[in-house]
Amino acid sequence: MQKVGLLLGGCIRSWKLVRMASSGMARRAPLANKVALVTASTDGIGFAIARRLAQDGAHVVVSSRKQQNVDRAVAALQGEGLSVTGIVCHVGKAEHREQLVTTAVKLHGGIDILVSNAAVNPFFGNLLDATEEVWDKILDINVKSAALLVKAVVPEMEKRGGGSVVIVASIAAYSPFPALGPYNVSKTALVGLTKNLAIELAQRNIKVNCLAPGLIKTNFSKVLWMDEAREESIKEAMRIRRIGKPEECAGIVSFLCSEDASYITGETVVVGGGAPSHL
Amino acid sequence: MQKVGLLLGGCIRSWKLVRMASSGMARRAPLANKVALVTASTDGIGFAIARRLAQDGAHVVVSSRKQQNVDRAVAALQGEGLSVTGIVCHVGKAEHREQLVTTAVKLHGGIDILVSNAAVNPFFGNLLDATEEVWDKILDINVKSAALLVKAVVPEMEKRGGGSVVIVASIAAYSPFPALGPYNVSKTALVGLTKNLAIELAQRNIKVNCLAPGLIKTNFSKVLWMDEAREESIKEAMRIRRIGKPEECAGIVSFLCSEDASYITGETVVVGGGAPSHL
Amino acid sequence: MQKVGLLLGGCIRSWKLVRMASSGMARRAPLANKVALVTASTDGIGFAIARRLAQDGAHVVVSSRKQQNVDRAVAALQGEGLSVTGIVCHVGKAEHREQLVTTAVKLHGGIDILVSNAAVNPFFGNLLDATEEVWDKILDINVKSAALLVKAVVPEMEKRGGGSVVIVASIAAYSPFPALGPYNVSKTALVGLTKNLAIELAQRNIKVNCLAPGLIKTNFSKVLWMDEAREESIKEAMRIRRIGKPEECAGIVSFLCSEDASYITGETVVVGGGAPSHL
Amino acid sequence: MQKVGLLLGGCIRSWKLVRMASSGMARRAPLANKVALVTASTDGIGFAIARRLAQDGAHVVVSSRKQQNVDRAVAALQGEGLSVTGIVCHVGKAEHREQLVTTAVKLHGGIDILVSNAAVNPFFGNLLDATEEVWDKILDINVKSAALLVKAVVPEMEKRGGGSVVIVASIAAYSPFPALGPYNVSKTALVGLTKNLAIELAQRNIKVNCLAPGLIKTNFSKVLWMDEAREESIKEAMRIRRIGKPEECAGIVSFLCSEDASYITGETVVVGGGAPSHL
């Protein structure tokens, strides 16, 4: 699998500089030569992001908790001719985080991009019914592990002279999803984590931004649109006409990781179809 | 000690309706007959809040982790003629949270007000240097325990037909304090927790608001103003002329718990002397 | 009319220090001796604010565009034993603004508090249907006149060593009301005006804060709740259980003008019953 | 492969669908065939945006108030092989706005994109020193004219089945620039205008987003960085390491107008190098 990826790497590099005679501009794959880690990327929004980063020229390491999901995602993306490898990673485990980093470095020589997408929601119901265990799990995975994963990746980015981190939060950080209280709170924390990391990492030439997807049609959000009545009610509550697609969250992540976003850091971009969020 | 509090209770009730002949208005102690729990209230902002709630007519249960601090605070406030009792409470421990609630109910027959002020910051330095243990401790105490304490108190508030919760966050929720990364992130989470709780508890007639103190002169914030040079630099960075006093955070908390704030819920009020925060 | 106000002034001062035997505390009318201007205060939220400031001890000058409305409001408030006088003022006219200030100074010797509540909404419909004239009128009255009124009042506040300004915006500053586009935009501008004034006036010891009422039952907002169906629909859209009352906006204004808010400036407080607004 | 690129370069339209053999993906100029109006685009940020939209495949109509500036900008961009035309337009004048629209439609058959960048700041100093005339001018040009220009353009976008608007505000919308009070306030209003328009125009398939540049090196912002001492002081106040370049604001605008941003509307993206703004 990796061999295919490596072979493709050579091909992809070759189209990185398509010169346009008429304008004197070089039109490059915006993430050419970049190495990107994307967690929780074998499905839904993470998968769409991984695919897009690879389409834009990056070598992408996809990961999630189950080997078979990783295998399926890698096969699918390689089947599209993309430079993708995979590794099992439970971001809540320190040794997994380390392994993710070392594998990426071994395969591709370094890390330029991290998309931290891993999140759990072991709970659906009233916020006040959430137990201590629920809070522990959600804060552990959604907040602490995100911070620690950045910590693990930064030294590698520094070796490359800089890098780009995108943390995936949610529009629920601003405007709570019903029945997902602790999840919502963890996402608000990520907006703060983004600001804090951006300030601290600016001097190392590492940008940190945040994607806040609105209501996107994925397995994760199924509980919010599982039947037509609920879908209609949530669309009305969120003042949106349609539920978004995972692909619609991917372009902005690639953009934020590209040279074009060189002066954007600490920002959260909501991809929510106009649902209420923040000024 | 409790006896004094109970005796005073009678006296306090007696001034609750001081009729003003000149204007025909009744001027009441705004929190008369209310029972208030304030965590981390033996020092600094929490102490100032406890005192103010008591001055405004509430029976206040102060608490913090050490018996001697509780004793000192209770003695000081009772010495001012206030209706105050105390109990040791480490909000991170479920049995302590339960005990806080049952004690308050036993003493005063119920709970109307909760001010959740407990917070730790076991870390000063770069965000990326924060260990897993640091994150665990900060998220546990500052976020999870706040949520679980509200959970423990709500049934008592319901019995009284409603109540008022104030969660103490920080201006750092919006505009990070330097070198306090994980603390800042936990405070951003609390702004989100406030919104989520407010929505969920509205139907039970419980309001949930948030106080976000700016740079206030307390032992907790000492690291930010410990010498004159640092104080000057942080005042300039925060665009403020002077550091605030704990008392300046207390009035708004009492206000938010009073009948005057009957239509205010889900709000965070920054008490920051004009430092940058949010629109 | 003014004579009554002046006479009452003496009486009111007499209840400013009601000593509470039981607690040893002095309980003062929080705005005793303060002189307050409130624009657009003969009805709705402005009227409720004027009444409350007077109840809290201030001498209040009410104003609006029509003499008969001013007379009615003054009569009503004086009938309650409050220290209130009135003057016709169209805040869009420079000479009216000047006259408001000079009259207040002549009557009461100075100005301590300004509540800028005047606003128009000469338009109900699609934002894109708003004409140049509509925009002119709304920006003129709601934004420019507010700034110029503060400008006219500040020199008087400086003579008193400081003061307090409260600008009345709307929750629509954050979360647009349907069919009130230009009005909504003008209210967002006021949130910005508040921040800017707060920073600039801090050195003169003048605080500037902002009240953002949610859906409050007034003639002004009638269009939003005029029939039961519309009221239900807007309550659902705003996730609130009930529409607020003007009185529920008044306490926070008095609070923000009191000594208790000495470290609060540049802040916008939403009084919205939990409707979506800002983090 | 590069040879193919060079051949294709000869006609920009022809490279809109460059099939990449290696990956099977089609790589298009993201704004191919789109017609874009950019106001105030003969210099600074507007010029950089106009160039970028043209580089990304759009036919761009640049404009500003002076013929010679328009001529110079058009010559420069055409000299780079870009599809650019120009027209004099003072956005404060209704007939100019109309002419801008009709010219663009005559030249290119319709309008898909509007970037509203025109702004004035006829004032540098204390907010309270701003006269009625200053406020009139700033609100007229920066807010009202932006709204009316969108109004003029929307019918043309509807004919094309949709479109994309980007309003240029400023980081000062959130975090005021010193000595630019009325300008700052007008920019806050634009963030609100963006939200309002986004909600209203969603049903017509028109997205409305907002760019909020931070401290960017342009003639406009010269007053903020004119000497080294001031530059250093403002960099420290804004917690940024370097001042941005106009080009760094251009990529995000192109992105927001592209198909990649299909689910992003009502959003403000700060391009501020990490300076304090909003959560």
From TrEMBL, chains A, B, C, D:
InterPro entries: NAD(P)-bd_dom_sf, Sc_DH/Rdtase_CS, SDR_fam
CDD domains tied to this protein: CR_SDR_c
GO biological process, any: retinal metabolic process
Signal peptide: none
Domain of life: Eukaryota
Keyword set includes Oxidoreductase: yes
GO annotation, cellular component aspect: peroxisome
One MF annotation (Gene Ontology) recorded for this entry: carbonyl reductase (NADPH) activity
Keywords on record: NADP, Oxidoreductase
UniProt cross-references to PANTHER family, sorted A to Z: DEHYDROGENASE/REDUCTASE (SDR FAMILY) MEMBER 4, DEHYDROGENASE_REDUCTASE SDR FAMILY MEMBER 4-RELATED
UniProt record similarity statement: Belongs to the short-chain dehydrogenases/reductases (SDR) family.
Name this polypeptide is given: Dehydrogenase/reductase SDR family member 4 isoform X1
Species for this entry: Hipposideros armiger (Great Himalayan leaf-nosed bat)
